[in-house]
Amino acid sequence: MSASPLGRGLWVALLVLPLIHTAGGANEEQKADAVLVVKSEKRLYLLDEGEAFASYHVTFGEDPKGHKERLGDGRTPEGRYVLDYKNSQSSYYRSIHISYPNAQDRRVAKHLGADPGGDIMIHGQPNGWGWAGFALQTISWTDGCIALTDSDMDHVWQAVDPGTPIEIQP
User: Fold this and answer.
1) What are phi and psi of 155, to 5 degrees?
2) Of 137, 155, 135, nearest in space to 146 by CA
3) For residues 114 and 124, what is the distance between their CA atoms, to the nearest angstrom?
4) Is the pTM value of this prediction over 0.85?
């Protein structure tokens, strides 16, 4: 008795799927030498020698336009910073700290008589809310951080080492 076309298709899928998964895993090992965030596009790009090899949808704070000036303004900083450490025990699914505020940010905040804020991170969803990432990514909900779905955060986490530069553009 010969196999039905559906049966043959199932066997082919069972043989090919592990190969596809293995090929995808190879990209997961690629390291970024820089990260670019374009706020107007709501995108985070992982770069290698200036070329993007991965791109992810991100969301920001409640008032994402403009550079962060003070604690509580709901903005994400703009400029060049460094991703200086990782935190796997964050209140959000994994987080990577952005070196905001820098000296210029502190000077501007001081001139405004304000606290520049800090603890700006790239992170996943609030712990326990990963299942809602698809919905949370449609609104601006952070306090100035850059949020991804948990699965996208897994990819960024693997690709980025502490010390990687990040540029955040308007």
Assistant:
1) -65, -45
2) 137
3) 28
4) no
Round the CA-based radius of gyration of the chain to a whole number and report it: 20
Sequence spans of domains, the chain: 1-30, 31-169
Which pair of structure tokens corresponds to residue 166?
A: 């990040």
Structure tokens at 2: 């010969």
**Is residue 93 within 8 Å of residue 153, measured between CB atoms?**
yes
Answer whether 94's CB lies under 8 Å from 157's CB.
Answer: yes
User: What are the tokens at 3?
Assistant: 């196999």
* Region of residue 153 (phi > 0: left; psi between -120 and 50: alpha; otherwise: beta): alpha
Higher pLDDT, 77 or 142: 77
Residue 80 CB partners (closer than 8 Å, separation 6+): 165, 166, 167
Among 166, 165, 168, 136, smallest CA distance to 150 is for 136
Q: Which fold has domain 31-169?
A: L,D-transpeptidase catalytic domain-like (2.40.440)
**Band of pLDDT at residue 168, cut at 50, 70 and 90:** very high
117-160 pLDDT, tens per residue?
Answer: 999 999 998 877 666 667 677 767 788 999 999 999 999 999 99
Helix (H/G/I), strand (E/B), else coil: 122: strand
Q: Which residue, 137, 160, 149, is CA-closest to 47?
A: 160
Q: What is the mean pLDDT of the chain?
A: 83
